[in-house]
Write a structure and sequence with these properties.
about 200 residues; alpha+beta; Aspartate Aminotransferase, domain 1; five-stranded antiparallel β-sheet; 8 helices; 5 strands; about 45% helix
Length: about 200
Amino acid sequence: MDKQDKLETYFNTDSPWRSGILRLRQLLSTTELTEDWKWNFPTYTLNKKNVVAIASHKTHFGIWFFQGVFLKDTHKLLRNAQEGKTKAMRSFYFTSLEDLDEEIALEYVLEAIQNCKDGKQVKITRKKIEVVIPALLESAFTEDSELKHSFYKLSPSKQREYAEHIDHAKQEATKLRRLEKSIPMILEGKGLNDKYKNC
């Protein structure tokens, strides 16, 4: 099923909120946003940047604003899905079709579009987790410089997988066995779990 088919199925599936999401779709079609399909929802973009999405749930329907934190929220409609966790995204939703004031909804959408044009965006910084090399692996590096070189060519996540796999064994004999099995894969530039990721 291609993107357009998914969109049409979403909007034409029978649900208590079908009229509401169709009204929102019509409203968004009057803007310069491009309709797309992402994360199983109709998503609207500007120059390939996510601006808003339409969502229909069991108890409500509404609009998600990807950078909603920058909206003025004059009418006090915006909600944060997870207070203290969700940084940028905000939504407002409706539990009846009568709740939907199209003029106010458009006001928020147009402000979100302008914010996108102005480059307003929350930058998500991911904490870098340090890779702790177990003593057994460190010892193997001193004996085999090629192994050390191959290990550090791997991505930090793959390095961490090997380090934890070896170090988390309870017995020394198991640690040694795990190290021996890991060495050929490290030298080939493979991650510990690559065979599962390609399934």
